[in-house]
Amino acid sequence: MPQPFPTISDQKQPQAWVITPNSQALAQLAKGIWDCAVQTNQRPLVVLSTAGPLIGVRAALEQNRPKELPSNIAFLPQVISFTDWLEAAPGAWKFPKKQSDLERWLSVYINLRKHPKLKTWFKAESDSGAWGLAKSVIDACDILSEAIIPQLHDQLNLLIESGALDAESWTKKLEEILEKTIAQAYPDLSRKVVDQESEVLLTFWRYLSGAGDAVFRKQFAMAAHLALAKSSQSQVRPFIWVQTADPRPIDREVISKYLNEYAQYAPVIEVALDWRSVALWSEALAGESSTGDLIELSADQEQQLHANIKAAPYQDWHLISARRFEELAWAATKSIETHLVAGKKNIALVAQDRLAARRARALLARLGPALNIRDETGWKLDTTRAAAALNSWLELIRAPKEGPTASALLEFLQNPYIDIPACIEKSPQACIGLVAQLEDILIASQAKSGWETFYMAIERANAYAANHAGAPNEALLKLLQFVRGRHHAWQEIGLNCTNAYALLQKNLQDTGMAQALEKDAAGKQLLEVMNAFDLQATDYQGTAMRLPEWISLIKSTMEEASYEEAGKEAQANLSILPLSSTRLRNFDAVVVVGCDEQQLPAFSEPPLFFSDALNRLLKSSTITAQYIQQARDLSQLLISCPSVDLLWQSKSRSGEPLRPSAWIQRLQAQLPQWKAEVSQPEMSIGKAKPLEQSVTVLDEDLPLPLSMSPSAYKALRDCPYKYYVRSLLGLREAKEFEDGFDASLAGQSLHALLRNFYQALKTEELKPDSPIIHNTQARRVWMEQQLSAVSEKEFKRMIEGDGRVLGTLRDWQKQIPSFVDWQLQREADGWRYQNAEQKVGFDLHFVGPNGEDRVIRIEGRADRFDINTNTDNQAEVIDYKNQSMTKIKKRAEHLLDDPQLLIYARAANESPIGAHLQGRQVNQAQWVSLKVDIKRDKKLQRSLEVEDVSALMPQMNQQMTEDIQKLWSGKELSAFAPDGVCQYCEARGICRKGMW
What we know:
Elements: E1 15-19, H1 25-40, E2 45-48, H2 54-63, E3 78-81, H3 82-87, H4 101-112, H5 116-121, H6 127-161, H7 167-192, H8 196-208, H9 214-231, E4 239-242, H10 249-262, E5 268-273, H11 282-286, H12 299-311, E6 317-322, H13 325-341, E7 346-351, H14 354-364, E8 371-375, H15 385-397, H16 406-413, H17 420-424, H18 434-445, H19 451-467, H20 474-492, H21 497-510, H22 513-518, H23 521-531, H24 547-560, E9 572-577, E10 589-593, H25 612-617, H26 623-640, E11 644-649, H27 662-670, E12 676-678, E13 695-696, E14 707-708, H28 710-718, H29 720-728, H30 743-765, H31 776-801, H32 805-828, E15 831-847, E16 853-868, E17 874-881, H33 885-892, H34 900-910, E18 921-929, E19 943-945, H35 949-969, E20 973-974, H36 979-982, H37 988-991
Parallel strand pairs: 1-5, 2-3, 2-4, 4-5, 6-11, 6-12, 7-9, 7-10, 8-9, 10-11, 14-16, 17-18
Antiparallel strand pairs: 13-20, 15-16, 16-17, 18-19
């Protein structure tokens, strides 16, 4: 039976009243508040210890308003949370200046610099770890400050009453009291705490606690409310304190003192929760003893607990297990959808398993705006898209002076908040696809890091476009210059808290991110958090800091800040919340996800410096207290809610079985008919009809090629699907940056430096007095020195952009003596360098599908042509390969499938003038390795000759003609490539080879 509201007496002490936390709790509380208003003929002040039930209490007051109330109490009684009540303290502007969380972090962090051993003890050597340690120090100091609050109570009240003191002298007086109290408490705590780390903590607390701490401001506020009640006793309203959760011992002591003193001036009602008819487990009914142990039930309590369980509406509780994580999320989603279909409008998803709850939320997003989803679990600001955009800039500016990685650069440029057209002063149309083009260039060149590397990749891409009837894109260079200029500013600045904040704000304005973030809900909150870094009016404005430290501070602040979602009108509401937030709240249905033995109950980690025993000594929260509170919260939820679904994952990630929570098992032992059901995913059954063969037919409207490169022809030989997708449709697989330094840019540099070297050699040979003409040893020395110098010059810029390239240069320089030996041997055989990077081609005639004569241009760029001085008409084509000889030999086994050298040879023979080989015939060809294994290859084989070029030429001509005719015929093209080709083919997701 509910306990009636007490008759208010003239006793100068608080009166106790208990309510049962069941489905009628809010109505019972509302009726009691109205009863207090009627008895006292005043509007009472109702303060809730937690803010969760606030809206529910106000709604219940409106629903249970008595009829014919006097006009002076007709309005709803004032209901406010404890936190808001403290903020509304009279004369709060006179309190000592409140330090922001950021200022407190900085004060501790600066002192942590003086104690590097402390960072080592707690494995917080990194910048982010140090900021985390600073926060732990602050939390621990607050616990210590709370422990001495009862000793300060009387002095604080006296300070508040002496209103004649100004703020400055008031703060000074408080500091003296605080100093004296800490000095008394410090030795006692020091004797009880012997750990070296804790002694350091006590030292921090001894010198860092101040009047501006939140703990002391809380006491200022309570004392100010009490002083106001004392000064205007005739107008003091009745005070109703509603304890919605078990308080910590220190909080109980503080609030009891306040209520006793307030009762001297007005009626005080202390409302607590009566768990006798609600508790479903012994710990929820009996609680804990003064020593912190669980109390054993008496015989009467055991009977009461048994009666509670038998009377419980377990028919409305559904136990659902799922084998895997994804099945659990789908089961939670299905449960919520079932409640929505049943017409329930106010549903709660209790996130014991936060990952599963987030996944369920994503699945429920399919329902659109009809369902308003609000996450109350503390969705961190750093998980939002806006924070990711800011983080991409922070990662870019923390890069070394040489430049960021390509991944960091692209991640920043691809964030949706940057205004690229405004950055480079171009029209939006000119910037379409600009970042995608930059990404393609960097990936194709494998330019992984460094500004100079990026410049080289873009310049070479623009040069290639200019030489192939394309248009160079100067906007790419301008974009790179824009970002580089702002990155350089961070490298040159002498960083402190003030100029770092100013420069970051300027960056956000310059990139257009500030304007875009202002229009985004999460972005707007992010900017508000960033405004806290404006420390110009504080003692920390000139605090010097390294850039990584400052960036870690920003990231830590974003991790601590919570994103608050804006509410909206919808047909139904879903609240994602922790179990503690369900207290005294009404829901049509509740789904609890994560009810396994590992996650229910869930305990918060004790503060870094405190054990559970020390927490009990300091009258703070303990694991036992958390255990009891969660048992009571779950009891209240099951008893008060009309429908509760309890879900858990029956197998862990490692495959081990997971049982439901021990609380659920204990209930099942007394409710044998309460069975769990296994969630079964919905199955769709169909009969597959596999393809008999993987074939493609070219679209009739698709224009067929009028030219083809040697690499495109190789793709056609590999597989027509590969050629169709890559060359005709122009599709490319999205590639990524591989680990290490790839040979793409290095390979281009090797080709360029060899061309420059041979041009220098030809120039040197024209000098009549050059010693290299007739002296072989001098020629060797000159070649090695010149080739090394040209290599250094060609790689210099790349090394400035990416220091890893230095290793590639040194590997190549080790090859130089062997390469010079090969070159000298060729010269001894009569071969001389003729030209390099020569564009050559020929027209291939074939018959079209209707019998008409057609022509296709086969064209490419040959690496090098040599001529033989011992004969009048002999020439040779050479192709450099930045590969080992083993790979080159495998290439030679399938020469007609990759006839690049044969194509160049035919092109040079058909147009010797274009190849600058007048009067010469190319009957020889070879591959030259630029990557010989010097340690293992004792013979140091540098090149591989193509045998019987003249004999292979007719075969190649016939093969190419047949392949091109088949391509133009419009007939079905079958996928026939070997697995080695298919493994890296862009078309493998289209072709479906292997499904035959």
